[in-house]
Amino acid sequence: MTFSPDLDLALAIADLADSIALERFRALDLKVETKPDRSPVTDADQAVERAIKALLAEKAPSDALIGEEYGSAAGTTNRTWIIDPIDGTANYLRGVPVWASLIALAIDGKPTVSVVSAPAMGRRWWAAPEIGAWTRDIDGSTRKLAVSGISDFENASISYNNLQLWDQSGRLPQLLELSRKLWRTRAYGDFWSYMLLAEGALEIVAEHDLKIYDIAALVPIVELAGGQFSDLDGSLNAASSSVLATNGKLHSATTEALRA
Q1: Cα–Cα distances in Å, from 138 out to 56, 120, 123, 141, 143?
Q2: Confidence (pTM)
Q3: Quick one: the chain helix, strand, coil %, rounded to 5?
Q4: Quick check: helix, strand or coil at residue 67?
């Protein structure tokens, strides 16, 4: 099986998403609403997802779709596109350039092909089997991704999401205890943490309160760069909300350190 056509379609989706989201970024008339889960949504999120749905209806009409803003659409194949039109909406609406469109194709339930595109940062990442994990830098050059080889906590760096969620999960003491053993702790946030992991710039990412569309596009890039992805309490699945990604060498030790 070749995944090049699927990756080409995912990259075309990313181009479309970039064009719409960039046009509305920092717009003075940006419309912002609050969803039932109290998270923000902008007219840009909605416009991007509508455009992606229309493109997939044309190019892959038999495939299923899971989107953040408009829910799911059934398909007739073993293939599901999983879309987060703008990951980092809170950044987007405040004018912070750290946001991205997340595009993933799951086959038989496993995220297999993906693109993460952050146009305001001038960056893009993508991955597919037999192709590997790659990034395009701000100067337009491309390079293959590989996680770091660090295998001890004292030289490792972690990125996590906000401390309130760690407190609510009951694992804030474990995070603080782990932080005392690490070289560096940061909260880069959203997709950016996982892309830095895939690039070898840090070793551990752990987060809570995620949905499938927050996670799916990150998995192929991290795994095909040599890293490991799991639920904090076991195997990653469609219902996972608390996740751990590492360079692989520190996965078992970090799982144990963060165990509830």
Answers
A1: 28, 10, 6, 7, 12
A2: 0.96
A3: 35, 30, 35
A4: strand
Q: Which residues lie closer than 8 Å to 9 by C-beta, 6 or more apart?
A: 59, 60
Considering 82, 115, 144, which residue would you say is the last residue of a domain?
144
**Mean pLDDT, residues 226-240 taken together:** 93
Residue 58 and residue 38 share a domain = yes
pLDDT of residue 89: 93
C-alpha angle 168-170-176 in degrees, rounded to nearest 5: 105
pLDDT value, residue 260: 77
Residue numbers of the domain that contains 77: 4-144
Q: Report which residue type is found at 27.
A: A
H-state helical runs in 25-158: 43-59, 89-94
Residue 36's pLDDT is: 81
**Judgement on whether residues 60 and 159 belong to the same structural domain of the protein:** no
Band (pLDDT 50/70/90 cuts) for residue 238 is confident
- Alpha-carbon gap, residue 89 to 194, rounded angstroms: 17
